[in-house]
Amino acid sequence: MRTDPRQPDRGRSVAIADHADLQARAAAFVDDVLIPLEVTAELAGGPLPVADQERIRAKAMEYGVQGGSHSREQGGNGWSVTEWFLVEEQFGRSTNGVSWYIPTAYNVWKHASPAQQERWLLPALRGELHDAYAVTEAEAGSDPSGMTTTARPLGDGRWVINGEKWFVTYGSIAAVIVVMAYGDPDRRALPTLFAVPADAPGIETVADVPFTHSYPHGHPTLRFTNVIVTDDDIIGGVGEGDELQRRWFTEERLGIAARCVGAMQRLIEESIDWAMHREQGGARLIDHQGVSFPLADSAADAAAGRLLGLDVAALADEGADPKLVHGKASMAKLFCSEAANRCADRAVQIFGGRGYMRTTAAERFWRELRVDRIWEGTSEIQRLIVARSLERRGVRAMLT
Q: What pTM value is reported for the model?
């Protein structure tokens, strides 16, 4: 059961009282290791030199910020959802996807077989390989119900996958691709996840275009033509794909909310510092209401988004109804991604011409945060989910 929201042992107080060391460690990692490499990544168009990549991986393990909620035995940290949110919040303070080099893996591996975990999860958490997740298609974006990729059983423990997946993040460097496909092609039923080795015959990259942000890895379009996998490659069981994907979406959306909160915090800090020391018209910028009022609006957005995200994390930790957590995670993603975009736009305006320079964090956030209103479900899809959750879970449950 969820505890009384009026009690002081939840949300913000928990984050501050119980997790101060973790927050400080994650913040120090971002300040000492990630942020100094942002401009290098930007000027290189995304990827960092190999030596810097290896340093990030090594330092992530030294600071203990790798692996997220995966167990310590597997190479993670076994964090609660709240702890994971607080670390992701700190990662969000960095630009250029430099945090992508931190060893981690998707949450679906928690439902994989021991053999799959040994083959894919443990090496990923050691920083030896990366996974990718392939769900989006040309006609199945934020709403995956239009998916057409199929996995046809051959009757001898083998399956043959056919389809095309778009925007496969890490797809250009992944060793394994988690592919969502229909296991019953004729009836478009039994959505199932398969762990497909990236070097399997029949996988080809048909497009790998540049995107607005300068990130380490691309989001290529991959085509699967008669790709053979086996029963041993099924994650979680035949027909379990929708449920596992819902859990994946819930985590990804809450993670976006956390990183957007972190981005807002840095944008506000840098904007405040600039406004306090820059003079125009005989006064500091911050003394002009045209600057101070937008900063106040950004602060309100950041504070509200953080509390909303922490509330969703606390619900998940309490074992609340997964469908309620899913609905509220969508609400957090919606609010925080929209708010972060507003905050970045205000920051660019406050910095003026300097805010349009790619060596300025405000400019990079202004470009990078835009996709958070799109991927893992557009803002429009999040609004649909929230509206349905209000109807099905009730207004009281969604708002308290």
A: 0.93
Any residues with CB less than 8 A from the CB of 324 and at least 6 apart, and which? 315, 389, 393, 397, 398
Superfamily covering domain 248-399: Butyryl-CoA Dehydrogenase, subunit A, domain 3 (1.20.140.10)
Contact 322, 315 (CB under 8 A): no
Protein fold of 11-125: Butyryl-Coa Dehydrogenase, subunit A; domain 1 (1.10.540)
Residue carrying the six token digits 């708010």: 339
Q: What is the distance in angstroms between the CA of the first residue and the CA of the last residue of the chain?
A: 14
pLDDT of residue 184: 83
Measured distance CA(247)–CA(107) in Å, rounded: 8
User: Length of the chain in residues, anyone?
Assistant: 400
DSSP E strands in 203-297: the ranges are 203-207, 221-230, 234-235, 279-280, 283-284
Phi/psi class of residue 212: alpha, beta or left (left: φ > 0; alpha: ψ in -120 to 50)? Answer: alpha
For residues 284 and 276, is the Cβ–Cβ distance under 8 A?
A: yes
Task: Give the residue extent of every domain in the chain.
Answer: 11-125, 131-235, 248-399
User: 131-235: which CATH topology?
Assistant: Butyryl-CoA Dehydrogenase, subunit A; domain 2 (2.40.110)
Q: C-alpha distances in angstroms, 395 versus 175, 324, 391?
A: 44, 11, 7
Burial 368-400 (b: 16+ CB within 10 A, else e): bbbbbbebbbbbebbeebbeebbeebeeebbee
Task: Quick: pLDDT tens for 108-148.
Answer: 999 999 999 999 999 999 999 999 999 999 988 766 678 89
- As given in the structure block, the two tokens for residue 160 are 């043959």
CB–CB of 230/192 below 8 Å? no
Residues 6+ apart with CB under 8 A from 113: 232, 235
| pLDDT tens digits for range 215-262 | 999 999 999 999 999 999 999 999 999 999 999 999 999 999 999 999
Angle at alpha carbon of residue 238, lines to 190 and 160, rounded to 5°: 85
Listed in sequence order, the DSSP H helices in 74-220 are 81-91, 114-116, 122-125
